[in-house]
Specification:
The structure is a homodimer. Helices cover about 20% and strands about 35% of the residues of chain A. Chain A has one domain (about 5-134): 2,3-Dihydroxybiphenyl 1,2-Dioxygenase, domain 1. In chain A, strands 1, 2, 3, 4, 5, 6, 7, 8 and 9 form a 9-stranded mixed β-sheet that branches. By secondary structure, chain A is α+β, with helices and mostly antiparallel strands. The interface between A and B is large, with 39 and 39 residues. Chains A, B: It catalyses: (R)-methylmalonyl-CoA = (S)-methylmalonyl-CoA. Chains A, B: GO terms for molecular function: metal ion binding; methylmalonyl-CoA epimerase activity.
């Protein structure tokens, strides 16, 4: 069912500093910052030859990554995103196997403009898994 | 400097259960288990179309992932591995920019039989970064 690794998301306190680190120290291609008000994060994408790293900085009140940064003050890997061909079919298969989908179970339009769902970390070896319809 | 994302490593308590989850619930290609006594872990690779997920279970006394699992009882993403063309040149560049290399700074032969180094999470947004000579 799962296809490509779409991205690995890293939550950071200071996206400017983290972008400079990836660009200047690690020598990677970095995007401009995008303020994603609907998602409560500012994003920068690091383009690697085979996948992407997504840097996330909290934006506004009640950002979904604020608690994660309280628990991980230096930042850290927040989630991993796998591509699926049909997100509703994937959801139904996963639910049939007992996996929990976060929220109301309906795909939302994610930060890349595509339907996404998040799966419960307790059901996936402590890892927050995002599925994105590719 | 950094090239492809070689793998994302997930530490787990029960590699048998985690392998079944990736194979049966997520429908991915999984390898056999390999006991890596020199590294204190048992590994399973999940092959995705563009990269790999490495499942790690502690093996023997003093496994390098034992403390991580004490802090993260459900398991979790342990490190991320980027490929570099020349690991000593990469190390020297990183050190010149003030980044700390773990251990004695000399590349070791990693779980894939290639030279690897680990970078200090405090210098990389709370993320343990492995570099592997591709």
């Amino acid at each position: 069912m799962i296809g490509r690794l779409n991205h690995v998301a890293i939550a950071v306190r200071d996206i400017e500093a983290a972008t400079a680190l990836y660009r200047d120290t690690l020598g990677a291609d970095v995007s401009e910052q995008v303020a994603q008000h609907a998602h409560g994060v500012t994003t920068v994408f690091i383009t690697l030859p085979n996948t992407k790293i997504e840097l996330l900085e909290p934006l506004g009140e009640g950002s979904p990554i604020a608690k994660f940064l309280d628990r991980n003050p230096d930042g850290g890997i927040h989630h991993i995103c796998y591509e699926v061909a049909d997100i509703r079919a994937a959801r139904d298969q996963l639910k049939a196997k007992g996996a929990r989908v976060l929220g109301d179970g309906e795909p939302k339009i994610g930060a890349h403009g595509k339907p996404v769902l998040f799966l419960h970390p307790k059901d996936f070896t402590g890892t927050l898994v995002e599925l994105e319809e590719a």
